[in-house]
Amino acid sequence: MVNKSVWSDNRFWRRTATWVTGFASLLLIWLTFDTSTQIAMGNDQNLQNKVTKRVPGPTVINYKITYEFSPKRGLEVPIIGGNDGKGMSLFQEKEKFFGRDDYSEEEAGALLHLGKLGSQAKNCMDCHTLLGNGAYYAPDLTKAWLDPAWGPNGAMQALTGKNTKEEAMAEFLQHPDQYPTHARMMPDLGITAKEAKGLVAFLKHMSSIDTNGFPRNFGKIKGAIHGK
Amino acid sequence: MASKYLTGAGSESKQLATWYFTFAAIIFGAQLLFGLVAAIQYIMPGFLYGVVDFSIARIIHINALVVWMVFAMFGSVYWLLPDETGIETVGIKIGKLLFWIFAAAIVVVVLVYLLIQVGPADATTIWFITEGREYIEAPRWADWGIVVVALGFVANLFLTGMKGKQTGIVTVLMADMIAFAGLYLAGMFFTDNISIDQYWWWWVIHLWVEATWEVFVGAIAAYGLIKMIGAHRQVVEMWLWIEVTMLFGSGILGLGHHYFWIGTPEYWWEIGALFSALEPLPLVAMFIHVLYDWGKTQGIQHEKGLPESVITNKPAFTWFVLNAFGNFLGAGIWGFFHTLPQVNLYTHGTQFTSAHGHLAFFGAYATILVGMMYIAVQGTNGIKVMKHTKASIWAVSMITGGVVGMTVALTIAGYVQVLVSRAQMGATWAAYFDGQSGVWFAQAMDWRLIMGVVTFLGFIFLAKDLLTTGKNPVHER
Hints:
By secondary structure, chain A is mainly α. Chain A has six helices and four strands, in the order H-H-E-E-H-E-E-H-H-H.
């Protein structure tokens, strides 16, 4: 064909496809490098030096964690060890976790490792969502550690006969079928006491991850059963 | 015109394709059965409690989904390769051996899911029972098996493509399938950091279903149009390249819409929003393309004074047209509904996603793969013009109606969850169960089960038709 337009030329579109795909892939790879650095897990040194990380180190379980509004970012952020009043973490206030607030990097890391393995070995994600991903048959676990239901005024401590959040959670995880919270009951997954402790550490750590304000207004809205 | 080389009988590649299709159809049935179990559990939580819990039913539901589609995709490639390249597939003996390894591994994996279910929190569970990561729960040993099988498949495709005639369709498939196989590697590691975990997990899930699988569908649709309505190859392949441009151009960075809330930086809001908002565009293009080519070839036929339809395979073409529409509706519209971060903040992790998942997997993939199964039935039985039967019409109507019904029901359930549990009550445990206990949510789940049953009955018609229509005297031979 003599006067064939470039727009109906297969070679032109093949090359365009190659260039566009190549460019998009390179951009994704570049962004992946940047994101990987930003979401690499922090360490105890960061917490000591009051450095905010998107994914803090495992020893964050030694600290009190809350989820509060940051006026600067216009969304809720995890606050570790107290709020400076401007939505930034102070990294001061500790909180006992199974009676201790001095877990070493290795001890906390081992607990988190056990908990993460446990979360996969028990298929948590196929009923619950974690960071919003998974199945929708059971509540989201992203900020489960901060859920009022497990707090001092919530139902779960009384139900399980435990005095702290972490003990109530660990007890529930080991015998979920003994504490029916809803017609839809969690099954007994053979979780041991040790594994339960790891899983609770994993949940506490997950609540400290900066999720850009997801979920919004967690446990704060009036009308919510335990929210005030 | 459509290639007449190797219609089925005598081609080992096509024989292997029918094995893949048969196994795929069986697993498709298993997917629907376990979907029904999970749907019943939403209404009667005591159903099979402690025997096949929701998590197990769902693992099998979604893993079977992925597996039957991958099997049908491999089958489609083995089917079309001799037509496109003009030669018998290279390394077909190895291909056949790999099929049996693959099928046996899948059976073992499913039996372990069902009978062992969970394990202790250590590496042996990850290696031998479950990896516990949605969609790719398959234990690590099976991962490596899948890698070997996928490598063998890609090798067959490449060797055949390079030895025979390398059409545009084959070129696209070669590039696409190597990316498809390679991406699986991104899901084969363990990390304590759940943000890193989900970052790479999405590389597998998203870059499969919103990039490489979509391009695969483009290539199969191109093949089908040439084969079934005698569309002009040059035009079809030009469209294919445009689709690849648009699909990869939007889909690769559209990955960003999964990085809004998993610990990743805020810049993914803009990147994810922009590129995923573009993702429906190629699906519109594909839709127009199929209908346009159909109208064009039929119009040419009319001008020649020939009134009969240009379609040489009615049931397959029905499924292909459904694909064009369902892909746009399920992946495009239902995806765009909740892709912007401003909306996704509330819809992320709700039944909204589930509604989108059902219509998108069906519209984008199930439809066209069932269409390919019909093309295989036609070829294997030496049918010139394949017509609808009562069973094929019941199958397509009930399956489509059922899936659309489930999607509508899940969308309503999603609205309740988004508005009550999320926006109104702030996403806590109590908020979650308040939303789930509402009458609107419960009604939606009832309808989902009813529509699921309709889908399953449609599947029985489909299975019956695929098994018997080849010998039906209604077709022109």
